[in-house]
Amino acid sequence: MSKAYNIAVIPGDGTGPEVIAEGIKVIKAVSQKYGFKIDLKYFNFGGEHYLETGEALPSGAVEELKKHDAIYLGAIGHPDVKPGVLEKGILLRLRFELDQYINLRPVKLYPGVECPLKDKGPEHIDFVVVRENTEGLYAGAGGVLKKGTPDEVAVQESINTRKGVERCVRYAFEYCKKRNKANKLTLCGKTNVLTFAFDLWERTFYEVAKEYPDIKADYAHVDAITMWFIKNPEWFDVIVTDNMFGDIITDLGAMIQGGMGIAAGGNINPQGVSMFEPIGGSAPKYKGRNTINPLAAICAGGMLLEHLDEAEAGKCVERAVMQVTANHIKSLAAGQMGYTTTEVGDLVVKYIIE
Ligand code: IPM
Ligand code: MN
């Protein structure tokens, strides 16, 4: 009997449904080729649902999602909803409650994709950021006093636990070993100023490093990393960092790989349910026009399959995407691809089935 996977699909807001539809098209095609079944269940969480019901996630939603093998998410964010409500109420809540403690962000320049860096090509840009995804400044610790007065005090604390740091660092070493490319793991921190939090990170990192003698353990300050992403991206293989620094450097990473049209990520709980998403957001101004680039969502679908132990199928999706970037797409930007959203999905499928 062939394997079957239950996938929860949250198309979400803006262009989310359009790009997810292309991703599903691709997942279906590749599942036929590799002989596994997928069962999809759609969830309408997002801005519209919030505006209708006043709740970001209905009660029981998390329990329901837990019954699936993986979650495929389009985008969250609605122009009529105050910033922060949906991000915290849906995306961050799912990351926390499903304990998706890793945010995995491959930064890879595909052939044919225009790179904003002079003299850099696909041979220079191919690294992965392992971002801690449940702690740090995102933990929600802190508070406000005397709000709205001249004496207002706002405190937002970065929470770093030994357990949280260690599981993230261990994941990164394992990932680096499995990837087996340059076998180099760089801790991105700020040990010269954040001497409590990054002391914990640094000690944990070098302790765990002893168990991985074949991996070169390296360190760089976050500000220096932003320079080197631009000047020497080829120095990096795998990078591990905290939640906030990871948020920032992965957007910079997305730009050097060609932009939001191609950048995908995974929110991973290695022992639980993981969630895969294009990182570009809901792009409301392109909603319903069939012009948005679905490749990031398609790549997220490929990551989802790799995570489900369908590594060959996942790699096949990536190869097909690379054929499309190399041979077809003019630009990754919405409306400038030379193809519609649905045509790009069809092209990827064509390379999968041929
Ligand atoms: C990301 C996003 C989120 C984050 C937002 C939407 C809450 O920017 O996935 O990087 O800050 O983590
Ligand atoms: Mn971000």
- CATH fold-level assignment of the largest domain: Isopropylmalate Dehydrogenase
> What is the strand arrangement across the widest sheet?
2-1-3-12-11-4-5-10-8-9
Strand content: 15-25%
Mean pLDDT: 97
Number of individual domains: 2
**Rg calculated over all Cα atoms:** 20 Å
Mass-distribution shape: globular
**In whole angstroms, how far apart are the ends?**
25 Å
Which structural traits does this protein have?
single chain; 354 residues; alpha/beta; Isopropylmalate Dehydrogenase; 2 domains; 10-stranded mixed beta sheet; two-stranded antiparallel sheet; 11 helices; 12 strands; 40% helix; binds 3-isopropylmalic acid; binds manganese (II) ion
Description of the structure:
This protein has 354 residues and is an alpha/beta fold. The protein has helices at 16-34, 47-53, 61-66, 85-97, 162-179, 197-209, 222-231, 243-256, 295-307, 311-327, 341-353, and strands at 4-12, 37-42, 70-75, 102-108, 126-132, 136-145, 153-159, 184-189, 216-221, 238-241, 264-268, 274-278. Helix 5 crosses helix 6 (197-209) and helix 7 (222-231) runs parallel beside helix 8 (243-256). The longest helix has 19 residues, at 16-34. The model has no long low-confidence stretch (mean pLDDT 97).
